[in-house]
Amino acid sequence: MMRLAAMERAYHKNGFNGSNGHVATRFGGSSPKFPALHSMTKWLSIRLIHWFCPTARAPIEVFICVLIFSLFAVSAASSQDVWTPPTGDWSTAGNWSLGRVPLTTDDVVVNNGGTAVVSTAGGTSYTIHNLTIGATTAGSTVEINSGVTLHMSALTIGAGGTINVDAGGSFLQSGGFTNNGDFVINDASVNAAPIGGTGMVTKVSSAAAFWAAPLNAGASVIVNGGRFTDNTLANGNAGVNVTVNAGTFVDNTGSLGNVTVNSGRRVRQK
Question: What is the rounded CA–CA span in Å between residue 190 and residue 184?
Fold first, then answer.
């Protein structure tokens, strides 16, 4: 049986260069794009070969096994799960291109003009990697029902996208938020880093919402009901246009763009 040390020597001899615990895959002298991933792959590959192929001694045999494991690792790390039906529940495996509900490592795409409803049917909390809605197709929507929280890293709402957060629903994102579509809120308390893009924030229902996330110039806020309190005191929302169609807009910023009151009212606190 080949010892691990001997396998590692064969591994290096076949054109793989290790340094300080990281493996660098050399094809014509190129440097690794993802050294940490290759380091993990090397460690797993050598040990899996040792466990399942104890007679593998030739460098080419080691190379073939390592290549298979490397391809598997890269595929697993970059999975994209795409929404496919016109409408349906997030927790239904058959509604996704991968045939399963998105995992924590998946980049989720909703871009077919349909609506993915995140309901309590499959639980009260879901975690994914990144979420992109409506990059190219109008009407693409994610609706988060009451009692559910969707966790993600980056959220990107394209020009054709909408994220609709029902009363009692929520999402938490930690890796950046760009809105060039429509972010629809009912009752909400939005405390976040600045939101990029020039999309809309639409306030609906009679509930109250509290906003503290600076928006880009050119973005817009539309109040269609209830009370929307803008508390972006630090940076303000300079250049943001507000339209009040119903309900109350409470302005605590003092640095907005145009404010149009078609019905309802605007209350200036500053």
Answer: 12
CA distance to 117, 133, 192, per residue, from 136 (Å): 20, 9, 26
Range(s) of the domain holding residue 33: 4-77
Sign of CA dihedral 121, 80, 213, 262: negative
On whether both 85 and 152 belong to a single domain, the answer is yes
Long-range contact list for 170-174, CB < 8 A, 24+ apart? Answer: 170/144, 171/144, 173/131
By three-state DSSP, how is residue 248 classified?
strand
Both tokens assigned to 35: 């050294």
pTM: 0.71
Q: Domain total for the chain?
A: 2
Name residues of the chain where pLDDT drops below 70: 1-78, 192, 233-237, 254-256, 269-270
| Chain centre to alpha carbon of residue 50 | 38
